[in-house]
Design brief:
alpha/beta; 7 helices; about 190 residues; 4-stranded mixed beta sheet; about 40% helix
Length: about 190
């Protein structure tokens, strides 16, 4: 999932803190890394970009994006839940602000989906950088009443998964870059 990297749309909070150029560079580098990971494993995985906003989609050069799906309206949970309605195979959703994304984490995600309904990649700020669905059985929307963009996001999701008796497992914890503090932590890692 990504917002089209256009000023005023992409990573506004981060852009205010570190400048749009640095913010755009971070996201574009992450997008390029994602593309490289999936190109290397194109026989095993297919990559689809789930982009927003719909109104800016046509005006941007999409040489870095292929296989695009446009996001519908709603909060983050609504947008992710929409994907479960069009995907029939096991799939994962990940953000475009994860600079340390790696092939092992992606591979482990799909392995864990063989034994679980859901797989989650937690972040250091209480959210998650990845969520995957096995599509082995019909599930209830796990994103209802999730408090987005705060330290309760992951715990709200886990509560919903437990309440809905859905099996889940975790892959490695990675850093997502949402603000200047995250960026500084990433730079100094």
């Amino acid at each position: 999932m990504s917002k089209v990297p256009i000023k005023g749309i992409m990573k506004n909070r981060l852009s205010k803190d570190i400048g749009f150029t640095n913010s755009k560079r971070l996201v574009c580098n992450s997008i390029e890394k994602i593309n490289k990971i999936f190109i290397r494993k194109k026989n095993e995985y297919s990559l689809h970009w789930y982009l927003t906003p719909r109104s800016k989609f046509r005006s941007y050069s999409f040489s870095i994006f292929n296989n695009c799906i446009l996001q519908n309206k709603g909060n983050l949970g609504d947008k992710m839940w929409d994907l479960t309605k069009i995907q029939r195979q096991p799939f994962i959703i990940l953000g475009s602000d994860i600079p340390n994304l790696n092939l092992l984490a992606i591979s482990n995600s799909f392995k864990k989906l063989k034994k679980n309904d859901v797989v989650i990649g937690p972040t250091y700020d209480g959210g998650f950088w990845l969520i995957g669905f096995s599509n082995k059985k019909r599930i209830i929307n796990p994103f209802i009443n999730v408090r987005w963009s705060n330290s309760f996001t992951l715990s709200d999701l886990i509560k919903n998964l437990n309440n809905n008796k859905m099996s889940f497992d975790f892959v490695e914890k990675l850093r997502d870059i949402d603000n200047a503090a995250d960026y500084c932590d990433y730079i100094h890692d």
